[in-house]
Specification:
heterotetramer, A: 318 residues, alpha/beta, Rossmann fold, 2 domains, 7-stranded mixed β-sheet, 5-stranded mixed β-sheet, 14 helices, 14 strands, globular, B: 326 residues, 5-stranded parallel β-sheet, 7 strands, binds thiamine diphosphate, binds magnesium ion
Chain lengths: 318, 326, 318, 326
């Protein structure tokens, strides 16, 4: 075990996989220096600012026997490539009847907090969740990052690695030896019995902080980190809610048709879980607005431990 | 027509004719069966443009890769796809190339380097540029070909990919089939210049205009571009001036706003008739030979239809398969 | 009143608004013949196939005093313009502090049933719902189409007119005189007391058919057509569920992070509604797969009156 | 430098210098205040490239429209934006151009025809082309200008818009500020040809390369293009060869991988020093005049900072305003 940052864990995962498999190559408008240094410009390609082309080229190279990693960098920049994502990457394996595989990994940082305003602060993962044919995850720790990223690189379908901009420099323990984390498995980040909080990325940590506070008051909070968004580990979420009877979902994205809505639906459409649900489902999300620049405004838009705390208290009051 | 025949073995010349004729007869049948309700959705016919696909693909090897558009039957057949599995796909059957999931707009055969018809205008250009990148990384001299229309040449991916291919010297052919229309909209209304090929200069690559109804002219341009690509010279933009005989899609009552005189002028320059005549004049074919070819194709088509009809429809539950790779 | 098709109602709405306001112009890759005939090529512009450019140009023209209509035709084709939609149209009014308005209408047909396979059969409206800054609707009748479209053209924000491909030739009564329908108002398409069905577009009609069948069995189904997706008329949905205690959502889109998830969340997070909810929420949606070509497969993927019926029966059995 | 001065009134020449100097001093201040934590997020400086914005905007009328990039301060100031409201925006205050919602990457002033800085590379090209379309429809001789970088010239919208503008003869200037880098990536690695202007030929429009550090050369090219555009001649692509002095963004410890000798060579061609010297040589400015100009600008900047600091931060609830037009 060593301590690595979230970002270092990602770079290490990529580097290890690239050492293992010569079919992997990497494309991005600005290469990551340590990767460029180790693997050179043939495998770490600096590209024009043409994300639609890069994404499509990744698909074509994947269908031709390679395993490309296309790093969009900020998720914002992938919208110019959306046709290639939605109409090609997601559908091509299916519409061609599965005749070849398209092992391609996309990387995209998400979230806000950097005072970089509406265009550069986005958490639009649920837009991608809605598209059938894409797997995706969003880790909250360096450990999860490395394990999921390695699994994703080895997966034979297109996978999107959403990565939290806020957590890039956050640190955590990462094993020395090779390990992977399966896609589709939630992680119980804290066990509890009174209320379930399903949280993503940075908000896992905010939820844990809120749980800590409430523990002092005798309230036991279970914090579930789904990690993978598609396929979502509905079973883990449902089991937890069956135990606690209460559900709060914390997400840095806006609520509307978001990840948080999907979790609410997954819980309330399940008869066994619905039967045990003792309080309304609660979404603690960003306000449904573009993200503003000024710190006062930006801080107001995002949820945090205090809003989670307030939300849990309201649920418990029922 | 271009007098290239001395350079090409007669067998190959006849094979080019056979392919072009196969495309035409296949689509005539597909159109009939579509109107008869046996083929669903939408069918875009390539009739009139056969020389482009066949001229280019005749300059390729088996391991080279191509990508197509919504108007994809011609490229499939030119690259060597199996008529049976194509027809079964159009019929929506299990034995189709895509197990009935794709239909006319999405026939692919990766085994022969056919990376698929594609329903998004300009949607395939980047994908096949990735295949060109793969060929470059493989280092075995493979090339990749992007077929696209005049309409697609105005879309962003055209530019992004030509620039990348030129900069990275990817072994690519960009083949614009300029049939002068994008659906109902004339190219003259959407292009500042009449030659798409003139855009090549901006990337420092060759831009070649050829008579797209002259299969040897197309072959010659493609052959030169393939040589260039295989030897590390980078991409070429080839513009085939051609024309589609039919409306944008097969549909009963589908209006065709084009000038009848224009259509007829182009139909008089039938790429198949022109080639057949040349082969006859060169003594490489006679009317009996042509008839034999027609019979053989008719036979193959009957077999394809029989194969398609004999193949079962997919089972409903197969709809949930192939979403992800196993 | 006359009978018009859904498509005719839309064309009539556009034509009437264009007659009224010379600032309106129309861009699309293939112009609609009657509009071209009446307004000529200066106002009905045939464009290159460059939807990203058209969308952006519409935004710029809107910010310069015009009221453009950008017709993407099939929603599929707008993914090449997604950057302009998500990063520009949705955010530009907000991030510039509201200094000018961007009155622009986008049109996009959605849905399946035409055997045109994955790329041409999509219902991705929830991807747009997730983006703050866009209004959007999806009508189920010619009457609603015309009234909503006219309102949308007069709105000063970007609005997306989603239009059901399946309903294009369906007929309905449309008043002779000018009328509009406000955005954000649901319509109760059938009153009932035992179960609420929230349905969109084609599925409104399927739900009404199911309701008819059930009426014979003495079950009273309320069918709510939200019509507008953003802003969603949560009040109308909640009131209905408070009355019936049961909710089924019928949507031609896949469920994951979809419109259906949002409706489930809106209902279950509201304390008053949750308190009256007697059964799990039920989503009757397309299967979460790309849309296949072959009729057997395509039919299997989409929900219909039978699946709605089955869903309602299950809810009533609880 | 281009000897254009005879055609331009001395006042206008001095005004060009004053604008360029204002941009530079504004950004030096913005950078300082950013590093001091008074300005947030990200700041991209235009220092070294001032002649491009000022040369072009000096050829425009008040009613003409422009759009900018992530590197937008220079275009704002050149088009006549108010330093006070710019600074207040950088400070995230209510009195800022965007009420604190936009910050450095999104300053806009529609009243002066400045359609905004834009954080998406190539994201503004289509928007301002729509402003050009609006100008054409208005029929009052207005023009619109798209500023963008060498990096943006490889993105799809560049191509889509140049083609549309050329075909529709829109009154547009496409001004590529080729500073030889997109973030850390050299243009030489991403462009097949060194001149972006060479792409103009593919659309049948003029493509002009100018010394982007020579404000008169830029002005001259822009002036000719504006004339052409106003008279219905359609768009022009102008490429300004220039260089940014600073790293891609202001950030402590931000690496700059560029060759120091290259940076220094360009810094010796300081567009402001070159212009000041020419004006002095022509007798239109002396060192006292220059100093007075500096003082005036310093004064204006102090006033702008004071204005920004005096303006309150937005109230939290204002975050939910302006999502939709009222
Ligand atoms: C991005 C996109 N926009 C619009 C369409 C609808 N569409 C299908 S084919 C076509 C015309 C294509 O013209 P061209 O590229 O010249 O090919 P052709 O049909 O002439 O072979 C259009 C507009 C589409 N499929 N994709
Ligand atoms: C679509 C997109 N991709 C990537 C980025 C990240 N990015 C911001 S500025 C920049 C470089 C832009 O280079 P250029 O266009 O030459 O402008 P310059 O910074 O040199 O003025 C990049 C890659 C972005 N903003 N948008
Ligand atoms: Mg065409
Ligand atoms: Mg640059």
């Amino acid at each position: 075990m060593r301590e690595l940052t979230y970002n270092e864990a990602a770079v290490e995962a990529v580097a290890e996989e690239m050492r293992r498999d010569p079919k992997i190559f990497y494309m991005s408008t600005d290469p990551i220096p340590p990767l460029l240094k180790e693997f050179g410009p043939q495998r770490i390609k600096a590209t024009p600012i043409a994300e639609a082309a890069l994404t499509g080229m990744g698909i074509g190279a994947a269908g031709s026997g390679f395993r490309p990693i296309v790093d969009w960098r900020q998720v914002t920049f992938c919208f110019v490539a959306m046709d290639q994502i939605v109409n090609q990457a997601a559908k091509i394996h299916y519409m061609f009847g599965g005749q070849v595989t398209f092992p391609i990994l996309f990387r995209a940082s998400v979230g806000g907090g950097g005072r970089i305003a509406a265009q550069h602060s986005q958490s639009p993962y649920s837009m991608f969740m809605n598209v059938a044919g894409l797997k995706m995850y969003l880790p909250s720790t360096p450990y999860d990052m490395k394990g999921l990223l390695k699994t994703a690189i080895r997966d034979n379908s297109p996978v999107i690695s959403f990565e939290s901009g806020r957590l890039m420099t956050s640190k955590g323990q990462v094993p020395d030896e090779d390990y992977t984390i399966p896609l589709g498995k939630a992680d119980v980040k804290r066990e509890g019995s009174d209320v379930t909080v399903v949280a993503l990325a940075w908000l896992v940590h905010e939820a844990l902080a809120a749980a800590e506070t409430l523990a002092d008051e005798g309230v036991s909070v279970e914090v579930i980190d789904p990690r993978t968004l598609v396929p979502l580990d509905a079973d883990a979420i449902r089991s937890s809610v069956q135990k606690t009877g209460r559900l709060l979902i914390a997400d840095e994205a806006g609520p509307t048709a978001g990840f948080s809505a999907e979790v609410a639906a997954v819980v309330t459409e399940d008869a066994a879980t619905f039967a045990r649900l003792n309080a309304p489902v609660r979404r603690v999300c960003a306000l449904q607005v573009p993200i503003p620049y000024s710190p006062v405004l930006e801080n107001h838009v995002f949820p945090d431990r205090n809003r989670i705390l307030a939300g849990i208290r309201e649920l418990l009051a029922r | 027509m271009t007098n290239l025949s001395p350079n090409l073995p007669p067998d190959k010349q006849r094979e080019m004719l056979r392919k072009m004729l196969t495309i035409r007869r296949f689509e005539e049948r597909a159109s009939d069966d579509y109107l008869a309700g046996k083929i669903y959705g939408v069918v875009h016919c390539y009739i009139g443009e056969e020389a482009a696909a066949v001229g280019v693909c005749s300059a390729l090897d088996h391991g080279d890769r191509i990508i197509s558009t919504h108007r994809g039957h011609g490229h499939c057949i030119a690259k060597g796809a199996d008529l049976k599995r194509m027809m079964a796909e159009l019929y929506g059957r299990q034995a189709g190339y895509c197990k009935g999931k794709g239909g006319s707009m999405h026939i692919a055969d990766f085994d022969i380097g056919m990376l698929g018809a594609n329903g998004i205008v300009a949607g395939g250009i980047a994908i096949v540029t990735g295949a060109g990148l793969a060929a470059q990384m493989e280092g075995k001299g493979g090339v990749a070909v992007s077929f696209f229309g005049d309409g697609a040449s105005n879309a962003g991916p055209f530019h992004e990919c030509l620039n990348i291919a030129a900069t990275w010297k990817l072994p690519m052919l960009y083949v614009c089939e300029n049939n002068m229309y994008a659906a109902q909209t004339p190219a003259a209304a959407t292009h500042a210049l009449s030659d798409v090929a003139s855009r090549a200069a901006g990337y420092g690559i060759p831009g070649v205009v050829v008579d797209g109804n002259d299969v040897f002219a197309v072959y010659q341009a493609a052959h030169a571009a393939v040589e260039r690509a295989r030897s590390g010279g980078g991409p070429t933009l080839i513009e085939c001036k051609t024309y589609r005989w039919r409306a944008h899609t097969e549909r009963r009552g589908q209006p065709d706003l084009r000038d009848r005189a224009e259509v007829e002028t182009w139909m008089r320059r039938d790429p198949i008739a022109m080639l057949a005549q040349q082969l006859c004049e060169q003594g490489e074919l006679d009317s009996a030979g042509l008839q034999a070819m027609e019979d053989e194709i008719a036979h193959a088509l009957e077999a394809a239809v029989a194969f398609a009809e004999a193949s079962p429809f997919p089972l409903p539950d197969q709809a949930v398969e192939d979403v992800f790779a196993s």
